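anyone seen this seq b4? input:
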Amino acid sequence: MYWNEFFIIAIAHLFAVASPGPDFAVVLKQCVISGTRSGIWTSLGVATAILLHVTYCVLGVALLLTQSPLLFLVVRYLAATYLLYLGVAAIKESLKIKSAEIEFASISVVKPAQAFYLGFLTNGLNPKATLFFLSLFTVVISPSTPAFVQAGYGLYLAVATFVWFTMLSVVLGHEKFRSRILKLGVWFERIMGLILIFLAVQIALFA
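predicted toks r here
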């Protein structure tokens, strides 16, 4: 019985984590701007936020959140505001760069704690993630499934998320890939900024 649940959860998570979204956008940006190490720390933040979602789903808080329109609206706008801030900040930063091409030497290295919090907040505040995990823990997982088994599912989801984004970080943070992207110069920051702003609007209006 539990293996059937696990298989469905694993497949659903695979499709969800592979879909482009805020998590992918911030990991990509960190990898290109600061390298693989920063991308991995961001990935760890995203994975840790998965445990947050799982915890409040097991405790029933997610159900309460979705049944309270006002509370869910607050979470949506918090997430949208955070992504909007990141997007605007990226565009403003690009306006300060005078050179047409971003050089490796001019890139400031992001501290591990900063990268971790970026990933954690991006995923932790995402209302779409809340709805995804709520659907798993109310539709797929039986109410009779023991709490320790549900916790095991959550641990798998967090580890699988970390492994996925870490593999992406290794690829996206490779110097050859970074150098090609950085040839876009300031336009990379502006494009990433616009993507984050678009995701913010999408979450605010359609989440």
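The chain is about 80% helix and 0% strand. The mean pLDDT is 82. kinda curious what u guys think
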